[in-house]
Design goal:
This protein is α/β, with parallel strands linked by helices. The chain folds into two domains: 30-84 and 108-362, Rossmann fold, CATH 3.40.50; 402-588, Nucleoside Triphosphate Pyrophosphohydrolase, CATH 3.90.79. Helix content is 34%, strand content 21%. Strands 1, 2, 5, 6, 7, 8, 9, 10 and 11 form a nine-stranded mixed β-sheet that branches. Strands 17-14-19-18 form a four-stranded mixed β-sheet, sandwiched between helices. Helix 11 links the parallel strand 8 and strand 9 (258-269). Helix 9 runs parallel beside helix 10 (212-220) and helix 11 packs antiparallel against helix 15. The protein is globular and about 80 Å long. This is Nudix hydrolase domain-containing protein. Keywords: ATP-binding, Iron, Iron-sulfur, Metal-binding, Nucleotide-binding. InterPro entries: CobQ/CobB/MinD/ParA_Nub-bd_dom, Mrp/NBP35_ATP-bd, NUDIX_hydrolase-like_dom_sf, NUDIX_hydrolase_dom, P-loop_NTPase, YlxH/NBP35. GO terms for molecular function: ATP binding; ATP-dependent FeS chaperone activity; iron-sulfur cluster binding; metal ion binding. One of its GO terms (biological process) is iron-sulfur cluster assembly.
């Protein structure tokens, strides 16, 4: 193997752990170097977090659904509820005795915090009306910024404590160009170095997807500091809900309870008459539990989760946010958004207080079964002729997708449609990726039955065609995200090219297609599914399975597992791995 191929990724478990060059900048370097497996920040994080009451993650796999808005609304709404509960009963009833009037009014300390861990798009400060503020370092730690949201000095509203990367950058328009380890380090500082004080609720606003930020928060909040659960945010459309399902699976894999689903943009509030009108075609589920439901309610029913309610799209919210105010603190006589938010808060508090059943984390096997229902439906469509069959009907593949085409020497000569590339046998590029864990097992994926080629067959972990202008490695990283939900970016030295591009030719006369592809093979060594949860795409991928390498490389157990339905390239690819590990234990080589 080349020198690059001999450079292993994370040296965890070796004598170099925590000291090797690749450990530089990793937030876990101290833990590995100690040799004891003890997180050096764990005690400090636990000490801070145990005083923060109930910790709630606001998650969504989809960008643009309004996670930050929902997180800000929940934080402010909970703060208002806490303030109302602390108000003396006589004051709540409107009593105004002379003694009360004479007593100087003192606001309570904020009991709710909002931690913005969307480091590349930190906007909680702007939404909470404290954009442009800075964090003050004190002897007790970083002092969060308190957002009053327009509440006057005579108000009982104590405000919300806010911490955001924007407060540390010197401006809301400063870009964050950081790799994963630096992001993780800052998030851990938010947890252990921020003087949150004693809170009843700490809300975490997260970025889209399931990447470094999410893993850092979840893996840092453990034991007595573990999160109470997650609120999943979606919009009504199918495009959003299908992506949000991955976030539910992330929670399942990481043992984070899902407290419920909130549907944002559930209708539009007319600025003239305040009537609420549906403006999106909602997602409709075929699941029996979701009969008669749509949008976020249908998604919640599919997974057996509480539906906390819907929040309408109200133009006045933007006006209030720009003025640093909040709909719960305004005196408008009629506000559909305020009514909807109060209903969501009631439902969430019922779950948190135990008056509504707190759901356990969705079992991964059950969640994967739910997610692949779409593929089962696709198979039924194919059998009925609605989708097309293996004789050239329409499939899940985009036949109009453009590929770069090459000559016999792998030199670019032009472009063509996917359908023409495969019908004419034009040379194009592809990449395969194999995941191998430290036990020497490799991951197989079962292709969707709706694929034109090898539909329903078992295959390598990832198989992707290159997009125009894309490198082999870029396509490999994209395929990991799109097919297996591994959206954490390039895994670095752990992902190694073990075979340079070579021509692989396959013929499929039953569908009239020829695959002439210059294909490279990458291997992700030492893959840890506990650190990187595999969340298969429910449309492209039917199922996944881990098998020992020798079983995958043509062993009878492969035939038993797949029923003989595996792609030609899968066994050749797994055979190629075998000589790479000859003379070494699989576990040692995988590291």
């Amino acid at each position: 193997m080349s020198g690059e191929q001999q450079t292993f990724g994370c040296p965890s478990g070796s004598a170099e752990a925590g000291h090797a060059a690749q450990c530089s900048g990793c937030p876990g370097a101290g833990e590995c170097a100690s040799g004891g497996g003890v997180d050096p920040d764990a005690a400090a994080i636990s000490l801070r977090m145990k005083a923060t009451g109930k910790r709630i993650l606001v998650l969504s796999g989809k960008g643009g659904v309004g996670k930050t808005t929902v997180a800000a609304l929940l934080a402010t709404g909970l703060a208002a509820r806490v303030a109302a509960a602390k108000k003396p009963s006589s004051a709540r009833a409107g009593s105004s005795s002379a003694a009360q009037t004479a007593r100087p009014k003192r606001k309570a300390a904020p009991a709710v915090g909002l931690c913005d861990v969307d480091l590349c798009g930190p906007s909680c400060g702007l939404v909470m009306g404290v954009g442009g503020e800075s964090v003050v370092a004190t002897e007790y730690g970083w002092q969060p910024v308190v957002a009053s949201l327009g509440a006057g000095a005579d108000s009982d509203f104590p405000g919300v404590k806010v911490m955001s990367a924007a407060f540390l950058l010197g401006g809301d328009d400063k870009p964050v160009v950081w790799r994963g380890p630096r992001k993780s380090s800052l998030i851990r500082r938010f947890l252990k170095d921020t003087f949150w004080g004693r809170l009843q609720y700490l809300i975490f606003d997260t970025p889209p997807g399931t990447s470094d930020e999410h893993l850092t928060v979840v893996k840092s909040l453990v034991d007595s500091a573990a999160p109470e659960g997650a609120v999943i945010v979606t919009t009504p459309q199918a495009s959003a809900l299908n992506t949000v399902k991955r976030e539910i699976l992330f929670c399942a894999a990481m043992d984070v309870p899902v407290l419920g689903v909130v549907e944002n943009m559930a209708g539009f509030v007319c600025p003239c008459c305040t009537d609420v009108t549906a403006i999106f075609d909602p997602y409709v589920s075929s699941h029996p539990a979701a009969t008669g439901l749509s949008g976020g309610a249908a998604l919640a029913a599919e997974f057996g989760l509480p539906f906390l309610g819907g929040l309408p799209l109200d133009p006045s919210l933007a006006t209030l946010a720009d003025a640093g105010q909040h709909p719960l603190l305004t005196g408008d006589a009629e506000s559909p958004l305020r009514d909807a938010l109060n209903a969501v808060l009631d439902a969430l508090l019922a779950v948190l207080d135990g008056t509504s059943e707190v759901p356990a984390a969705v079992p991964v096997a059950q969640a994967l079964s739910d997610l692949t229902r779409a593929t089962t439906a696709t198979k039924a469509m194919a059998e009925s002729g609605a989708l097309g069959s293996a004789t050239g009907g329409s499939t899940l593949d985009n036949n109009d997708e453009i590929f770069d085409i090459f000559d016999e020497n792998n030199k670019l000569i032009g472009q063509a449609r996917r359908e023409d590339v495969h019908k004419q046998g034009l040379f194009h590029r592809a990449v395969n990726v194999v995941l191998m864990d430290n036990a020497g097992r490799v991951l197989l994926q079962q292709r969707s039955v709706g694929k034109a080629i090898n539909g329903g067959c078992w295959d390598v972990s990832v198989g992707e065609h290159l997009s125009p202008g894309e490198t082999y490695r870029q396509a490999a990283v994209r395929g990991l995200a799109e097919e297996l939900g591994l959206a954490g970016g390039d895994p670095g030295d752990a992902l190694v090219c073990i075979e340079e591009p070579r021509l692989c030719a396959y013929s499929y006369p039953e569908v009239g297609k020829i695959d002439n592809e210059f294909c490279a093979l990458y291997l992700w060594r030492g893959f840890d599914p506990a650190v990187h949860p595999v969340v298969p795409d429910g449309i492209e991928v039917c199922d996944v399975a881990w098998l020992p390498l020798d079983h995958a490389a043509g062993h009878p157990d492969l035939l038993a597992h797949t029923g003989g339905k595996h792609t030609p390239r899968s066994t050749t690819r797994f055979h190629l791995l075998t000589p790479c590990v000859r003379g070494l234990s699989l576990a040692a080589w995988a590291r």
